[in-house]
Design goal:
By secondary structure, this protein is an alpha+beta fold. It has 4 domains: about 200 residues, no CATH class; about 140 residues, no CATH class; about 90 residues, no CATH class; about 45 residues, no CATH class. Helix 8 runs antiparallel to helix 9. The chain is globular, with a radius of gyration of 23 Å. Bound molecules: adenosine monophosphate (AMP) and magnesium ion. The site of adenosine monophosphate (AMP) has 16 residues, from loops.
Length: about 525
Amino acid sequence: MIKLNIKDTFTQELPADANLENTRRQVEEAVFSYANPKKTKAPKVLHVSTEMSETLGISIEETKSDFFKNIVTGNEIYPNTKPFAMCYAGHQFGNWAGQLGDGRVINLFEIEHQNKNWKVQLKGAGETPYSRTADGLAVLRSSIREYLCAEAMFYLGVPTTRSLSLSLTGDKVLRDVLYNGNPAYEKGAIVSRISPSFLRFGNFEIFAARNDIKNLKILTDYTIKHHFPHLGKPSKDNYIRFFKEVTTSTLEMIIHWQRVGFVHGVMNTDNMSILGLTIDYGPYGWLEGFDFGWTPNTTDRQNKRYRYDNQPNIGLWNLYQLANALYPLIEDAKPLEEILEQYKIDFHQKSFAMMKAKLGLFQDDKNDLELVQQLEDDLQLIETDMTIFFRNLSNFSNTKTAFRLIENAFYDVAHISDAVKMRWISWLENYENRLKKEVISSEERKKRMDAVNPKYVLRNYMAQLAIDEADKGNYQLIDELFQLLKKPYQEQPENEKWFAKRPEWARNKVGCSMLSCSS
Ligand code: AMP
Ligand code: MG
């Protein structure tokens, strides 16, 4: 037994589904339904984020216990707690999808530690009333991807839900990875995830869509009370302020994604956290070659709705849906519209400031916008590795030597045309001139640039290598990547091999650059 400081607020303060059967159905007038995790055949913990466990007041020793294993795989229920699944709806790929809910997530309890409240949930723990046509389970490959990426994002300074543990269930799960009629059995797995809140835009949308204003208000008041307490008592003005804060944190999160080259892949409103945290790591990907039009999600191959450069616009689109959902509590469109208009202005200003920081430009110059836009065009002339380019640029001293630096970021170094080379030389000359206006030393500039341009990110093929190894029963690479990604901005000479372009074999390999939602 591990002593946890359980402090449930969600189930204590919000309306529960009166139906206690775990059957698939529409659930009305409730924020959640009670549902227990499925017992698993041979649970085994593969990895624990010890930083996260300590944040919850669970010692490293305790994470090695059978009790911990049983809790994080759903085989034992912590005394006096009642697991549940949340009810939410969502817009998927731009269309209203109705009720979705936690179809393969089961929430366990809330832990309070050092004055912070954390929700604990299991992803892949079996059916709930929201499982619709699926099985409520998760496979090892997607669990490794979620487990590693959430922690990597945290250490990159990107707002995110966290991972506590990655476990095998010992059960087999049938999946058709490519949706081409070739299902195969895979290893089942469970990630235990942690967040101050797992509420999504879709939790609010569902009540608005059903015109259930009573419960919309109960949920919004709960959210403000626990997550935006500085806003004070519920009132129309405070609902507007609440919406404003959600727009700000959503935009900040997306600017971070743009900075590190993260593409979420499924920015449906049911995957948008009310706290502006990156949530639901599915068919996400990392930019290798800088490409505004790139998306890792094969389900979105046609429209590329969730492509890299569209993420800020989609953030706004999703916020419109949230505004519509909150409207019945506010009954005044104007302040909501003003906030959404401001998002557009802030987006341009913040993304420009972010790009300038990546370039080490801290003074203002009238040509800066052009310099940034020119760079974005040039980065797409030939396939150019985003991470390597920006990381190497902090070593810039002059145009003559700089081309060598950035050449390392080009995928096809042998075939760079003179025209492309000229374009780059011209940009580098402009950059060199521009740097003369900076007042900080080049050492200081490098320090600041290296603090926003990561050296190590979870490249798509790296996660896939860890998955391939894990499929064979070797789990060391999961830990190697986990440790590497804890210090993404630091030089790690022993890990230089991970500061490299994507190997050619990974270019079109399933799992590396092509992912589906089948997880
Ligand atoms: P996602 O694309 O993972 O954000 O999931 C969208 C919706 O489908 C959510 O309601 C999920 O809970 C549900 N879902 C996804 N995978 C499964 C699964 N294997 N079993 C049950 N529900 C699922
Ligand atoms: Mg989801």
